[in-house]
């Protein structure tokens, strides 16, 4: 999952970035309205954490830009303004939640997960070559035929499908799939799980075209011509 942090307080940005990345999320940062709108136009995000009172622009305009994006990310406002007017105004603009500063880390993570559960259920199907991932039903099909994956294999595939064209480091895979459960997974073990996934979704697992290995770094999902070493 990719989260855009729209905040002009450097200390809060550093704290949020560290917290979210330890939970396995990818993050980008914008310190004002123009920067946020540029990132929303150029990249896909699952959620935007937006401060209302920005030094450059305002969070309500960023929310409007987010909701106009295709696909539109969920939006959670983070702000010191917790009065009823600001809350109602934010929700009326389409925000999915509204959290007043200062906030507690565990509460924030819980609210993020709750919003993402609600919004991901409405997500459109993702395609990776001839493989289709339907997040709403947690169903995977290859060339129209359903593929039976374990829960872990499904989570790996969903991570790769959501990250097409971008490098997914081994560390990020481990953080996203295992670290939240307190488990440690070695590179060799990760290789085994990726091989099992390839056995089920690749036409020829010995010559992968969908999940490619970028040597020494991690993986890249997409056509082999774009992915480097296999």
From TrEMBL:
GO cellular component, one term: cytosol
Domain of life: Bacteria
Molecular function terms, GO-annotated: phosphorelay response regulator activity; transcription cis-regulatory region binding
Keywords: DNA-binding, Phosphoprotein
Sequence positions bearing 4-aspartylphosphate: 51
Pfam families the UniProt entry points to: Response_reg, Trans_reg_C
Positions of the OmpR/PhoB-type domain: 123-223
Gene3D superfamilies attached to this UniProt entry: 3.40.50.2300, 6.10.250.690, Winged helix-like DNA-binding domain superfamily/Winged helix DNA-binding domain
DNA-binding region per UniProt: 123-223
Name assigned to this protein: DNA-binding response regulator
Organism: Gordonibacter pamelaeae
């Amino acid at each position: 999952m990719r989260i855009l942090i729209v905040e002009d307080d450097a200390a809060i940005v550093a704290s949020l970035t560290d917290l979210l990345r330890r939970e396995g999320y990818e993050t980008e940062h914008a310190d004002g309205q123009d920067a946020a709108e540029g990132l929303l136009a150029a990249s896909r995000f699952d959620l935007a954490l937006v401060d209302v009172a920005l030094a450059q622009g305002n969070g309500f305009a960023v929310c409007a830009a987010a909701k106009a994006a295709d696909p539109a990310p969920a939006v959670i406002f983070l702000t010191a303004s917790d009065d009823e007017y600001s809350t109602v105004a934010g929700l009326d603009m389409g925000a999915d939640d509204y959290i007043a500063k200062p906030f507690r880390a565990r509460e924030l993570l819980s609210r993020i997960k709750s919003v993402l559960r609600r919004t991901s259920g409405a997500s459109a199907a993702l395609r990776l070559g001839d493989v289709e991932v339907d997040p709403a039903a947690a169903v995977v099909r290859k060339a129209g035929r359903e593929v039976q994956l374990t829960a872990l294999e499904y989570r790996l595939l969903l991570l790769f499908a959501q990250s097409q064209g971008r490098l997914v480091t081994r560390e990020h895979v481990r953080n996203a799939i295992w670290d939240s459960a307190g488990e440690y997974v070695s590179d060799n073990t990760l290789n085994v799980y990726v091989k099992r996934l390839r056995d089920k979704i690749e036409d020829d697992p010995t010559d992968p075209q969908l999940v490619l290995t970028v040597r020494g770094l991690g993986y890249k999902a997409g056509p082999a011509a774009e992915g480097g070493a296999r």
